[in-house]
What does this fold into?
Amino acid sequence: MKRPHGSPLRGLDQNPSSPAFEGVFGRMFRTLLPAHFSNQALSDLAKAMIAAKEEQPASEDDIDDEENPGIDAGYTYFGQFVDHDLTFDPSSSLQKQNDPNGLIDYRTPRFDLDNLYGRGPDDQPYLYENDGMHFILGPLLEGNPKDPGARGLVRNNSDPKRAIIGDPRNDENVIVSQLQASMLRFHNKVVDILREKHPNVRFQKIQQAVRWHYQWVVLHDFLPVIVGQDMVNSILPHLVSGKSIREDKPKLKFYSFKKEPFIPVEFSVAVYRFGHSMVRPIYRLNVGLDRKTIFAADGNESLNGFREFPQGWAIDWDLFFNPGGAPLTGKTRIQKAYKIDTSLVNPLGDLVIAKELTGITSLAERNLRRGKEFNLPSGQSVARYMGVAVIGDQDLTVGKANKDGMTPDSGQKGNIPLTSISAEFAGNAPLWYYILAEAQQEFKANDTPIKLGEVGGRIVAEVFIGLMLGDPHSFLSQEPDWEPFGEFGGPNFKIKDLLASIKS
It folds into this structure.
């Protein structure tokens, strides 16, 4: 069965609070008491967080005041791709190649692209060409003349046709599906580059190079965009000092582990779900195609996944990651993510597939209820523990980070005070909501770039960097001075460069 977005992961319920416990999932703030809420209060909050349905504008000549000028739309789905990598639960190909007898059901989470590689060419040869090096690519896609080699994913003959990939979740929507296909092509590109230089290069060396380029993008592109470069530098001071990481050591204040890195439930169940607020209601895949709704009943008008996509739906990544010099308006503009705030677009309030499993169609309600089920502390408790100034109730509201929502004298209704939804939220906000509201505090004007705040940003950055430091196979552990290949731009390498490299 396909797993809908946000559904529970195997092993997530195995996260005792004991300080001695370590597994795939654990707790970052083990001593904090859980926050308590009634289901009715959470349901009411969820309803307030789902925005009214938006009509598709007739023109793209106007700037949408819900867009975040600091974050391109593609980072929403790169973040989803990363999440699927960290929480991929079949046995790791990396673990297998280093410990053939160590096959276990759950593994240490790593940035190792097992959502791409699956169990490797020996165990899943149907993912690879006969040489055991290149991935088998899906059919050609049309619609993006800049990239005549654009590909979809290989699919089976079922109805609807399911993708044959390392992690089925990476076919959840059209955008993450084509990002998966692009990563397959990037692997093949690295195969060709390394084989030309070293004809007898082993698959594991190729795999390492691809993983390290991906880790570089996570550390030097995705994290600075989401949490800010200053936050990254505060944890990895050697990036500023120019000294060795062995001399100017990392500074992790809150994320720690004794044996193996783990995914904190505070991160997985609440904090890292900030990306849900970044989802746009509509996207343009390429300039020759009308814009499509992210989730809708009509398959011809929606970006729903787990199916074969029309031939003309090839994504022009220049509309999702700024290559430089793009206009601010019109069909060729860079689509921006929606702002990180306490509002989710209307399609996320009615995810029909989720009702089959949980009875709850609202993504906001599912997130809030899950935080309660996993006994997460309140946002205020976490802020106090971290020594960060707690946001007062008067500044915690529900709605959009734009002038109409944030400015009472705008002539609009404005955002809703959190405590007006329920008195239960006085000084006691759900952690997921609090992380979104913290980011929302950065609002000054409609064109204000918004990233995660001090609490949310540090949790995300420390978990990401901690996972890399705890992985003995990451570039940060094995070769911290390593840089991406010159063919891809060297130290300036970003996700846009990765996507550009596969066109040639």
The two ends are 37 Å apart (CA to CA). The beta strands are 25-26, 67-72, 263-264, 282-283, 292-293, 336-338, 397-398, 416-417.
